[in-house]
Input
Amino acid sequence: MHEDMEKVLITEEEIARRVRELGAEISRDYAGKELLVVGILKGAVIFMADLVRCLNIPVRLDFMAVSSYGTSSESSGVVRILKDLEQNIEGLDVLIVEDIVDTGLTLNYLRENLLTRGPASLKICTLLDKPSRRKVNVQVDYNGFVIPDEFVVGYGLDYDGRYRHLRDILILKREVYSGKEQREN
Ligand code: PRP
Ligand code: MN
Ligand code: MG
Output
């Protein structure tokens, strides 16, 4: 295990099994349709890459990047689009893919924003749900794992841009981030 990590929270094998289950469920729900999968940069990229390869329906991919304003430790809830979708989603079946729902501010904003564009349907898939930190209610349609209030990295999730490439989901040692930025991810 990486020296900055306290312990493994979810192993690579557990993630792979759950991602296959989610892929099967989503494929059943959208049978006969084409899905536009929208990945939210950067945290969602690893999960998205694995998830879409577990879908057996026609799929297209697009990406958005957003940033939330605020101090380093508290998000203000004001979200800014850094990179928008490349296509018009009016009339399309859209699935937002995220790595984690934490306060819910990012996904709440994305849902409201994309709904104004008139998709045929809009659902949300997250790998991780950390309900203890929620500030706004977000309806998540597909979730991989509910996790405790620990600072997790790996499988796309970062601390200060690092550790996204690690294959497991790991709890970061407190000494690595204490005294620095407290905000998750
Ligand atoms: C993280 C994470 C989610 C969001 C969740 O992204 O990947 O997108 O925060 O937090 P919330 O529920 O409190 O809004 P971040 O802004 O760190 O960008 P990144 O994906 O590039 O790491
Ligand atoms: Mn993110
Ligand atoms: Mg982050």
